[in-house]
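Researcher: Good morning. I'm working through a list of sequences from a screen, and I'd like to move beyond sequence-only analysis. For each chain I'm collecting a predicted structure so we can compare shapes side by side. This is the next one on the list. No need for commentary yet; just the structure.
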Amino acid sequence: MQATIVPGVATWSRWQADRAMFFNAWFVAGEGGNMVVDPLEPDADDLAYVAERGLAAVVITNRDHERAAALFAQRYDVPVIASLPDANEMSVAVARTVAHGETLFGWRVIGLAGFKTPGEFALFHRASRSAITGDALWGVPAGAVRLMPDEKLADPRRAALSARRLLTLGVRHLLVGDGMPVFGRGGDALLDMLDARSEPELDYFEGER
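Model: Good morning. Structure tokens for this chain:
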């Protein structure tokens, strides 16, 4: 487990040779309880880290990031939390579903549209200006972000526009599930990605920030 510059957030990663990138999982010391987000298979040190600090919930940002959720839920006897659209598509039992605007241990749920799964969401922490983005953004190459290939997205244009929600929140740190996190210049990385795509605005974003 590796501490990050975001207070209360640590990470563990695994290299995926077939994707030529790291997959990342997150431990978050939140308000009123700790959570692991999109947890990968842990090693002994990871488990010891979590056991020492305690765990209140396992959070899955999309159905394809179920990963080792069942292991953590069973080992620490804690609930699994996911979005309603994705909950029934998982093999692990989801005890609670969340939607855009709700709060999990001090982190706000940011619903995202047009991605690979209908229930994709990010988590945003206002005080640290940090976002945990699951599958929504890939941190490749290092220091930059991009969406996954368009052919994997349900609606590429809608997904790009949906990512603007994070930009309008003033994100500084992007804690991605795949690739390299972007610390300190997350907003710039998002802006570079969106400028490159040049997607037009859509009216449905009005009033949803």
